[in-house]
Amino acid sequence: MSRGAFRTDRLDLPTVLEMQRTAGNLAVTGLLTRARRRRPPPRRVQRAPLDPKQDPKGYTQPQGVKNVASSGTTRRVVTVPGFGVTGGFKAEYTHRRKDPKTGEMLEVRTPSAERRMTEQSPDNTAVVVMPDVLDKNRPVQVVLHFHGFGFRGGTDPHAGYAVASGRSKNAAHGALGTVRDVDQEHWSQQIGAVNAARGATGPQTVAVLAQGRGRSEFGKVPTFPYVRAVLDAVPELAGVSDYSIVLSGHSGGGATQVAGKVADLRDAATPPADGTRPARPADVVVMFDAEGVVSVMSWAVGKVRELAAALEADPAGGQALIDASPRFRGYFAEWGGYRTPYITANRMLKRALATVPAAWTLAGSSGPGTKVEDLFRIVAVPGVRHETVISKEGPATEGALADALTASTSPTSDRAQALPWDARTVPELKAAKARAKAPAVQPLAVQRDDPAVPAAAPAKPRATTWKTSDAASDYALTTADTTLLGSQTAAERAADRAAFGTAQLSRIRALTKAAKKRALIPEETTELTDLQALRTKVENANRALRRTDVEEILDDAGFTVAGWYGDIQKGSFLGVPAKVHTSLADRLTQAETALVGDAAVNPSGDDAKTLGATLGMYGTASDLRAPKNAVGGSSLSLHTFGLAVDLNYKGNPFLGNQGKTAPDVVARATSLVTGTAVDVLTQLGDAQASFTALKDANDALTTYFSYREPANRPLLDAKLTGRTAAAGEPTDAAGWIKVIEQDHAALKDKGDFKKHKPPEEGFLDLDERVVMALTGAGLTWGGTYRTAKDIMHFDLREGDGGKVNKARIAHTDSR
Ligand SMILES: [Zn+2]
């Protein structure tokens, strides 16, 4: 039903429920009040639950789910009119990004997979996690949490805290009925364990998980009015008035929400004079692998300086001042993409702590009690990915969330986990590594275009699968190159190139072949010698020109040829050998590790090579290439820089690169077989959507060519029964057979299919899970290109490869 179809004069129950699902409670309440004006004030209507088929666990039922995962906590979805997003999930999200070259602001559009990921509306919605039984005599601590991006098909798991539809083929999007908080981040399990461990006296933790969309967009959610509205929407919590706040964010939620809300945080409440009940504890900020950690640290640094001044002024009141102070915990994946900003934040913290009187520091006082550095702490979480920082990868009842909640009331509990002050950033580690190798090497800069891309992830010193294979000597401009270029003009080189084309190349081949069978006549010998000399001259000049280009591009990107090509490594991806730059090697390892460690993909726990064979990988990788222009492009290929790899070359051609012949055949095949013509030269969406569309088209093409077999004629006849031919299409089976044979002849060993598998075997044999793991590691897949689809191709044009890619595109080739 579309929103335009609602009629306020026909507000029967199914209509209202449907409207609530799609239009949101506030809008519906408004309509109801307009329709029945005699019944003010507007009633709050609970959002309609999902059909049990879409929500088998019953998470969206009004009562929620009690004792989730045996945690002793209840999970309930609440609607809070007036707060949060409205209008549902969008089809795409836009953001603005500054062009580093021109300084111009560019609008970037990214399609959303949310509507595929869940059937649940995000409108005015939050998830509440609370004890099954709330003890009225214990204080309450409310965690207000904001999730990261949850919309990109290739990278993001779960659309916020909505129930997964299971419709997405990307396993990261969750199986039917799963939710991010229970199945991935373990909120219920960790909160249940902390509440139990606090016994009968400590605060009881309740979590408010705000539901957002897109790029961590949450609508209007002012800290205290929002929490108040959520608590009021839960009868068991409606009476809770004096609570402390734990303001928490993961990934993009850190920058869009937490960074702006830290100013709201409060000191602990003064304990009542009679001492009968515990005071409200101080508020806490927690950042889980989050954007904006440096900004939040500026707030923390201000708190440290205030506290230092107060301790200086009132040494006797020291412990009370410390106990009343707000706290901070920052957690990051030890070798993930957020390492560098967290280490920057750690250094800011160290400088601020230097102003604290010695008696209140660990170094200055061995006495018991909480020191100032116990209040503000950064922790590196080992062995986790960006999406598992909150849960860690161990028992569900343990994790960084549980650690943070424990530290909120026992700030000394995690002293041993504190990040050392001398921890180093990724660029520093790379620089150190490079210095140890060769003095000319420059450090690689770490770039993050987008939050939540676990992309820049494992810069971790890797296992032994990759070995350095210095390729600098193949790329460095030699003295001979410069001498050669200096001895020619660009016009002379252009003339040489014009004089040596495909005709001359074939002539060399013919004469060489002839020379093996018979003696060449003197004229032929002279011709061959001259042609070979010209070829050598053109090749030498071209090599020198491209080496010049490589040097200029790397220089523009801030690297040296020796440094960049000194970081070329040899190794393998799923058993397929590859020679690539270390930054791409990192991503390939990241994707491989994800596949090998995924019990659904690799149930028997095979090694990478064995799993590769199971997933249909075969050894025809094309990786680091001698300097030459990109296939179908004018600038040097990313392959030249070791930033691209072609996988399963034979079965995955560059479709549409050699004109429209192959795309036209695919359009005809999909029209006949599926009823909808697919144009592979158009944009097909994100990696997931592109894969699905291309796979369907691939299957249609193999079916189409299978009609060439006489035995399959009945299948073609069946396909044509009752079918209306589109313009230009044959109208009967005989006509189709003729076209199919022509199409087959047009593709086999020609154009896009030259040197590839025969067209009846299709154009896509990569396993979907391999493609999704690679794009999930931040690589760009040629199947997502705007026009022709380079299906074999994966490259690193963002992250560490971003600078080189930008310089490559901006560069003008030497002539
Ligand atoms: Zn390629």
From TrEMBL:
Keywords: Carboxypeptidase, Hydrolase, Protease
Domain of life: Bacteria
InterPro entries: AB_hydrolase_fold, Zn_M74/Hedgehog-like
Polar residues bias: start-end ranges: 60-71
Keyword Nucleotide-binding belongs to the record: no
Entry protein name: D-alanyl-D-alanine carboxypeptidase
Gene3D superfamilies: alpha/beta hydrolase
Region (Disordered): 28-73
GO molecular function: carboxypeptidase activity
Listed Basic residues bias regions: 34-46
